[in-house]
Amino acid sequence: MARLADYFVLVAFGPHPRGSGEGQGQILQRFPEKDWEDNPFPQGIELFCQPSGWQLCPERSPPTFFVAVLTDINSERHYCACLTFWEPAEPTQEAASAEDAADGEEELEDGGRMRLSPSAPAPASQLFAPKTLVLVSRLDHTEVFRNSLGLIYTVHVEGLDVSLESVIGNLLTCTIPLAGGSQLDSVEEGARTISLGAGDRQVIQTPLTDSLPVSCCSVALLFRQLGITNVLCLFCAALTEHKILFLSRSYQRLADACRGLLALLFPLRYSFTYVPILPAQLLEVLSTPTPFVIGVHAAFQAETQELLDVIIADLDGGTVTVPECVHIPPLPEPLQSQTHSVLSTVLDPELELADLAFPPPTVPASSLKMQDKELRAVFLRLFAQLLQGYRWCLHIVRIHPEPVIRFHKAAFLGQRGLVEDDFLMKVLEGMAFAGFVSERGVPYRATDLFDELVAHEVARMRADESHPQRVLRHVKELAEQLYKNENPYPAVAMHKVQRPAEASHLRRAPRPFPRLDEGTVQWIVDQAMAKMQGAPPAVRAERRSTVPSGPPMTAILERSSGLHANSARRLEVVRNCISYVFEGKMLEAKKLLPAVLRALKGRAARRCLTQELHLHVQQNRAVLDHQQFDFVVRMMNCCLQDCTSADEHGIAAALLPLVTAFCRKLSPGVTQFAYSCVQEHVVWSTPQFWEAMFYGDVQTHVRALYLEPPEDRPPTQQVGEALAQEEPPSALDVASEQRRLWPTLSRAKQQELVQKEESTVFSQAIHYASRMSYLLLPLDASKSRLLRERAGLGDPESASNSLVTNSMAGSVAESYDTESGFEDAETSDVAGAVVRFINRFVDKVCTESGVTSDHLKGLHVMVPDIVQMHIETLEAVHRESRRLPPIQKQPKLLRPRLLPGEECVLDGLRVYLLPDGREEGAGGSAGGPALLPAEGAVFLTTYRVIFTGMPTDPLVGEQVVVRAFPVAALTKEKRISVQTHVDQFLQDGLQLRACTFQLLRMAFDEEVGSEGAELFRKQLHRLRYPPDIKGTFAFASGATHTPGRPGRAAKDKGPSLRTLSRNLMKNAKRTIGRQHITRKKYSPPSWEHRGQPPAEDQEDEIAVSEEAEPSTLTPSAGLKPADRLTLSSLVERACCRDYQRLGLGTLGSSLSRAKSEPFRVSPVNRMYAICRSYPGLLIVPQSVQDNALQRVSRCYRQNRFPVVCWRSGRSKAVLLRSGGLHGKGVVGLFKAQNAPSPGQSQADSSSLEQEKYLQAVVSAMPRYADASGRNTLSGFSSAHLGSHGKWGSIRVSGRSGGPGVGVDVGSRLAGRDVLGPPQPNGAPPDSGFLRPQRAALYIIGDKAQLKGVRPDPLQQWELVPIEVFEARQVKASFKKLLKACVPGCPAAEPGPASYLRSLEDSEWLTQIHKLLQVSVLVVELLDSGSSVLVSLEDGWDITTQVVSLVQLLSDPFYRTLEGFRLLVEKEWLSFGHRFSHRGAHMLAGQSSGVVPIFLQFLDCVHQVHLQFPMEFEFSQFYLKFLSYHHASRRFRTFLLDSDYERIELGLLYEEKGERRGQQACRSVWEHVDRLSKKTPVFYNYMYAPEDAEVLRPYSNVSNLKVWDFYTEETLAEGPPYDWELARGPPEPPEEERPDSSAPQSRRRVVWPCYDSRPRAQPDAISRLLEELQRLETELGRPPERWKDTWDRVKAAQRLEGRPDGRGTPGSLLASTVPHHRRSLGVYLQEGPAGSTLSLSLDSDQSGGSSASSSRQAARRSTSALYSQFQTAESENRSYEGTLYKKGAFMKPWKARWFVLDKTKHQLRYYDHRVDTECKGVIDLAEVEAVAPGAPTMGAPKTVGEKAFFDVKTTRRVYNFCAQDAASAQQWVDRIQGCLSDA
Questions:
Q1: How far apart are CA 286 and CA 1050, in angstroms?
Q2: Which of 57, 437, 1358, 1433 is such that its CA lies 20 to 30 A from the CA of 183?
């Protein structure tokens, strides 16, 4: 039995001690006055009686009642029922507010009253003071308390004839049965009727089970006030330990809401701060950091506004406010939605019927009390579903003396499939759940409704999920049980309690509440106590039983992942593979292994693997051979790869006994166990994993203690698995039985059992210390891999695994830092770290499991010894294991060949290279087996991304597949999910696309893991976008390979731009003398070009005109010879040499000659002050002063004013280039309305300057003498000009067939739209089509810019508006071209149609057509004698493309190797094409993307090359080579955006100077030169130029071909443009047969897309040259360079060609061939009489008549070819080669071709090898001596001193310089030999 009430207290209003306006509560009386022993009087009741504060009230209020809850220090809750009523305040009480004090204080005795007559009305200022009756109880019977206190108040107010003392005494002595005490066998005991002796009767019903909370109607009220969503939100918040605050104006509502919320949490108990009604004085409690559930009166709402992390529920407003910083995880689906729908059905039963056409008669709604129980039933079901099977995850660690139980959280989450669920994770980690485990985990105790539900009803709940009516029925059944628990006997619930009359509080009080007689009350209490002591004690006899475990757990939501749907087949594969391994069928196992490794991603397959491996362990040991061991370890590693640190599926737990069982013998006495190969997994370093494992094993052993004879099975059951599926009882069953028997055992027996259990735990602790040392100590203990992992470094091959990865690193780090000071800097304290880790584990588990302190100390002593012993064992294993070959995981990684200076950044990451839509690569239409997918590895170097591997298709054989591209060429990187070919399994993938038309579409192997893939992406991004130019490969590689530079190089490498430029024109010998500015590889001779006579008087210096003002430059006449040499070397840049060749910059020292030149070299931009993107020296009209150029430049974008870049040798017309015009330039001038002549224009000075400048250009033209002709086109009638105005529109899109669009530009230009049909294919008509009336200067400008311009007939220039595409259009077009040529995924519809469609959509060929069209237009204008200024965009993209193409088409020199180099250096590099910006080379340019302007130009050159194959000295390969390397960043040539930037970095002039190592080849031209000496790969064998031919290619899209650079691929070696990396053709076999002329048949299969066909099948001429070399070797002649041989053949051809009357530099082929030269074939025909070289020429005559008559190409036999090798003078050429010769006084060194002639006793020299005119002769008869020489001023710097020699004759001394010391010695020997012969 229990007391109903512990204390009765009377609390009244008292003044505040500090005299403030508010009062305070005073306890007037309390009964009993002495504290109960078992229940001390709670402190602070005065505060809780009036939570809003004690205040006087101006009028009488009705009595109020609420129940406050106080929690004491022992977490016991005290229910304080408070009934408050108001009495008139006494004078002392109202003294603070009353003006006139009353007569004084009256003594309050039992019968005393205030002296107010009963009939007199209360005075106006009368105030009322509150007085509270408080009942304190540990039981929660709200209604009984309300009735009891109400009765006391009624007795007082109504003046009933009952003693208040006896009522209160009876109340304090009233006892009621304990809840569920004797299971309430009788109605009398279960429903106790009490009376307080005032004619009342109350029935108290105690709950059947005290563990079930009593809620009355509080839950139903809570739902009414807040609604379903809000209550669910509060429910989740309370479970996940958030702070919850209720607000209401009603105290009782606050109490009910808090009680309701806690009732919903059952079976969990809320264990944090719980204050349903918080007094105002304690509001600061709300800022506590711990979670709470608190109620506060709404009057204090303002005080709660500043709480940032508190969830506020406003009961009166029905809202719940969740702060932004608080995240409440929702219930896991589908439970959230199911709960929501059931709650809505319970709260609104008519919801289901609302839509029925014939609704049934309305169902009577449940009463509020019943609805309350139904709502609670819903939440009870929810908990049963959430926690279903929880008992299977309990570990019983100790049974006696008290049960110690642990919960295996990871196994529970894993098997429920809720590892990722935030809500359940937080609930399981919370305090409430810890209490739940310790309270409900006990195996032998009283059970309640929840235990039954979770054990027996789970299957029913799962079956009912989809049937709402059945769910509702179940809810109602549970609600009935809950209701019955609260009201076991509803029939006897008859109360009879008197109440005061209505409005009794308004009557004048008969008297204040009297002071009670303590003695009387105490006497009544004592009497009752005496009776109780005589009665037998009430024992709470619980009915205890074994708690049912229920069915094993299942996943909360069966996720049928499509990934492992076919798991039965997968499990079969796993079983088969393991049986093959143990049967020794290794080949079979190897075939299955990839499928097994994929299957092991699934949980079922991993579990199957562990079970299968268990079967092969006998007596805890399984000895394997090396191959078996490797296979088993590989599978174990794969199993553990995806285990999280918590091991939620028990896989690591199941493998733990296996890794200590499987082993192999390394040598006698040395055995290696599997654990040494599977250490690198995060799970081993997680303390929680080891604890769960430990407790699981302890449970197994403790269970075995109490079972009768031991089981047949070894006790190796898996953690968290269903431990009780067999017949033997589970550990919990055993524990339950033992707890039942415990009270019956003798003391000695009890002690014995306790000791046995403690010893079991202790022995397991020792065992686990060993196990942990096995898995934590690395095989090589000398290296602290721990620290390496902490530093985030690791072997990329195992990037996803590591010995001590994050979690252990974290836990070990604590001990490092806290216990061992600086020890973490040591690199060898692995042992110490492991010891500390194990010690911490031992401390924790042993303390929790009740191990004695002596045993614990012993363990701490043992652990270091265990670790040390294991380290010693491992040393032997490590030593022996290193002698074994490593585990071959997959095909061996093939390492790629690297360039000098190229370094690996990431070693091979295993990947699969997947097919990407190129049909040949996948076998496809080209035939042959599929090369892709291939299995191998991707390497990341400082220069390239390289894949090397083997095809996965077994039919392909051992072909190596290589695909690579420069890192700098990467344009797009995209993550992809890939279905690989094996088992349709999704993997992480990456697709990398490069602007060199390579694509890597790869899937990472499972061993790489997401971290490895992410690391690869980050490193790739870092290399692709370095922060500055110094980070590029061209710089970084050079830096690493030239360590031996002298110290001054750093200073001299690039003097600042200002210094260099300032000293450029001054007397600065010291600074610039060291700087050799010329590029070295131009020898010999410097400006040789084919078919062009040498410029007259080449010995002249390039000087600068003295015309400029003295302040601008120093006259060159005053320069010393050495300074002039310096100046000449400075200006010998590409552009200056070209200007000299063109006769634009030959400005000698004589003034008269300089003035006669129309153009001059101006150094105005030498400081790069006018235009930073122009070169330092520019060609401008002679008449324009330098100071005017500054003003002219302002009219043009980027200050790029018009400068001359080329002059036609025939028509003397010049080509100028500039940026587009600003509005205020000439365009503005032309737009002026009334400007009869330019002189009257009112434009500003710069416009006038600009006009003067253009006038000067026109004046400089030789044909501009005829002023009367007015060379304009404006004389034509507009009728001739079609619909597009005078110039028509050259549109970007050349597709539309509208009038005038397909018409040739030139014919429209000449106004011949209606006069004659154009040639087919867009070719121009004959060359004389232009009318004689031409403007002297045409300005090609952007149509949009020149809109509205009206030509003025007085101008000598004319504007040609054209539409051009912009850079962004090139970029967009290139993206589409990339996708068309390298699709990325196999096409949906195979065949050429889709490819051609996507090619057309890209509009790339349309842009090529546009460029060629404009270029041909400009060529025509220049050829007809008019000059042209190209002034488009900013002058560095399309302008550069057009002027370069125009020069290429117009001038044959640029079609040679040397000339093309000069053209690129001049127009692209010097004139500032923005290579770095357009190639997005730096981090800053990342957003702008790749815009391949230069590639587009090279494509145009390729199109012209196809149409005129005999006009180019260089081959198509040369163009592809430049296309590849302009984007590769391998060379420095194509880096940076202008000469200014190159000088600033010291690049422009550094290539001279000190001799560089062979490997640091920084310039692409240098590389080409070097390569050309070894192979003729850049040379075009069909080169047979016609003199001064101007090319006019067809430009229509139909005539253009897609460049094979975009589509071809060589998978055998990767791109062929890094020549050093290619393996080259197979070496010719040694000649074993005597008859070398017999035909040799060496067949070889050549695959498209795999082999490089040019390499596999070289052309005829390469073959002939090889043959020649072989013959020379046989004859013992020193082999010559191929170029020398070739040039001799060509020279011979020329000589023998002249008598035929051809008059042209002939070649192997006839020179005059049809205009439309497209297909030329070279083939080698083998016959009995030897090889015949046949060079056939098929001319495509489809286009109309050709410009010149066709001639049949000549064919010659090889014998004729060989006879040409003897030239006319060859018998006189004893020795020949290139030598540098010092000229006469003040003349520079020049490279000449010298011939030593023994016959004529002469040393002759020529300009170049092919030159037939001798330039000078040294007669050997006059030679006195030949001696070593010394270098003089201006001598070549890159040769050694021993390369110089002097020849002394009777007249003078000749200074010579050879290529190197050896050749110098050879020359000296040869000359001396001639002298001695004479």
A1: 69
A2: 437
